[in-house]
């Protein structure tokens, strides 16, 4: 329900990540989306208009609507991850915007990590460039359900379909080398508004939807590869609170379905039980689905603690004390073999040591380079040895139970984003 | 006769599919906020929930109650009292905190002034002084995290704010010292003397907050709804006549039907002309609204585009 259409459908929340450089017109695109979706209120526009005029731009410079911190505004470029919000009567959007430059790989990984969809910008005049390939690889690595390629500035190539088709072919060919082809291409001009919100009269050869309609209609969640029930335990409500004699296990169900009576296994201990009751945020429920915040009571007297993982019986996650993973390195100091870090995975902290560095990934060529270190913005494959057992899924099976961060114990800085690929073949002695 | 056991993990039946499809954006935002609240309570030693009496903190408190139900809140509620409050807001605060069985801690700006911790510059607004009072309270209570109702859509400087926002030993926000936030994994580690601010409704918009207030029947202070009030007009804003706002030479006092879009100090928060006397009418007004929450009514944000950023660097929020 929205204030504009109280009886309309609510297609929920969609998290969209945008990637591209300032030169590709990304900020203009976002400004156009916000403007045309009527999310801009009068005084924001007034403030931007006066600032635009002060800095010598004609009229409203749409990109200025998305610039934030003072230093960046003055420099005219954007760094870091910025969150914008807008809604149509059909759907609510959270838009995370990241810079496109290769020095900011870590920012795109951050901004897109939990996105449902990425919009990659291409300047039609330049076609597929290294940055485009990099964004496609990152989107694939993050296992984002949908990727839209916005081929922008079509007005500067005379709305030529041949240019658009060439870009589609080239990028599809590149993506086919490593992933399922799941790209959607939309030709547009963010500056003039063609195919952003309104269909373009200049490109009658394009039969697909404008970007905003595509965003409204794309399914938010792809349940096809469900690993079964996964409830990472965040918080335990100890009895006798609430008149209960069993602890309440609270967390967000991140996969699967739990019903009263569901048989479950608590990992990493392996204890078995069944679901005696489920409370949602508004009282008892008979069934919980992915995304629900719940408190579960188990029928048996088993130990459950924060950091445990409640799984469906027979579809349990793996348990190991070492991992293979792809990481995006974010720390200022490089990662090396033997480095010791704290690892946070599904509400549990572990001690972790880098036991091997397999390779550094070249994002443009997909080549594996030998490396003895990973530096900021590098992506590499490594092996980690943990201080205790961890219950996990491969990242490509579930983004929440398959992801982790590394933290520098001395500075407390988050130094890496990790995606679990497997447990190493060699077990630790 | 044998009965086939139901596979607990089978595809949802029609009714359950319908239930899942009906999950709205508010449900998604609510679940995210509850997740964050539970992570904060579990990761930190001594949290507190900042409560101003405004709609964002009323929503935050409501979410916290849901997150830890049926147990009590595992942390106190903290109010930074500037001394320039609307009386309705103080009454609401007491009702909603002490009245609901929560532990309320009040940190007083007046007390900070009396103790010489901060000087009243006589400018009329106590907004800047709040920073000192809040930081002193954090130090005195040994807090390592303050939960707040801040949203990223409120102002440009907040668009890049983290959910877990790091503050250094001086209580300052350092834009270059913020940590990347990946997936739903939050790094709340701090050294002694440092603390964090955590914002569970970071991704909510003003409209989301009002829709949620409507859906949940959340109580708000009466000033949000249309009422008659004696005001003066200054710099295009309607300010309530009160001990800290007295009519100047040539300034007319008149009675208007107004309401407040935001709860701040009486000394610097403007009212808007409105007849919206229910949440439904406020929602309608918002849909037609042409001015943002802060732009219309908070005098101090007019100083400069970077006013909020500067105040965050000082530790205000």
The CATH architecture of the largest domain in chain B would be 3-Layer(aba) Sandwich
Strand content of chain B is: 5-15%
CATH class of the largest domain in chain B: Alpha Beta
Query: What can be said about the biggest beta sheet of chain A?
Result: 8 strands, antiparallel
**Coarse structural class of chain B:** alpha/beta
> Beta fraction of the residues of chain A?
25-35%
CATH architecture of the largest domain in chain A: 3-Layer(aba) Sandwich
Oligomer: heterodimer
Rg of chain B = 21 Å
Protein topology:
The complex is a heterodimer of chains A (about 425) and B (about 325).
Chain A: E1 13-19, H1 26-36, H2 42-54, H3 70-75, E2 82-87, E3 92-98, H4 105-112, E4 117-123, H5 130-141, E5 146-152, H6 161-175, E6 183-187, H7 211-217, E7 230-232, E8 235-237, E9 248-252, E10 257-259, E11 263-267, E12 271-280, E13 283-285, E14 287-289, E15 293-298, E16 309-312, E17 318-329, E18 335-336, E19 340-345, E20 348-361, E21 368-369, E22 373-374, E23 379-392, E24 403-407, E25 414-422
Parallel strand pairs in A: 1-3, 1-4, 4-5, 5-6
Antiparallel strand pairs in A: 2-3, 7-16, 8-9, 9-15, 10-14, 11-12, 11-16, 12-13, 12-15, 17-23, 17-25, 18-22, 19-20, 19-24, 20-21, 20-23, 24-25
Chain B: H1 14-21, H2 25-43, E1 47-50, H3 55-68, E2 77-81, H4 87-96, E3 104-108, H5 109-114, H6 130-141, E4 145-147, E5 164-167, E6 195-198, H7 206-216, E7 227-234, E8 237-240, E9 254-259, E10 272-273, H8 279-288, H9 293-297, H10 307-314
Parallel strand pairs in B: 1-2, 1-4, 2-3, 4-6
Antiparallel strand pairs in B: 5-6, 7-8, 7-9, 9-10
